[in-house]
Design a protein that fits this description.
By secondary structure, the chain is mainly alpha-helical. It has one domain. It has three helices and no strands. The longest helix is centred in the N-terminal third of the chain and has 35 residues.
Length: 98
């Protein structure tokens, strides 16, 4: 009984990581690309958004391919550090607008 609850909690944690963490990662990458690409604002935003459409399903697949839910959360957090730092740094200089 306890192993069943632990298994289900792991699946729930992975599901939340896939949905929320994958969305967060893809949104950060889209924003970082929109802020850093040396094209027009519209092209940079479009490129960032299209890239996010690839990042999200890859993140979801990766979360369920990990050996544990902890490893999945850790990987999403580590992958979000660089684009998050870029968004924070450049967002502060541009007044928060992309």
């Amino acid at each position: 009984m306890a192993s069943t609850i632990r298994y289900r909690a792991g699946v729930l944690s992975r599901t939340v990581a896939a949905i929320a963490g994958g969305y967060g990662l893809s949104a950060l990458i889209a924003a970082a690309l929109a802020l850093t690409l040396p094209t027009t604002r519209a092209e940079a935003a479009m490129t960032g958004t299209l890239t996010a459409f690839v990042v999200y399903p890859v993140a979801v697949m990766w979360v369920f391919a990990c050996a544990s839910a902890l490893r999945a959360w850790t990987g999403l957090l580590l992958a979000s550090l660089l684009p998050g730092a870029v968004v924070l740094a450049l967002g502060a200089f541009t007044g928060g607008a992309a």
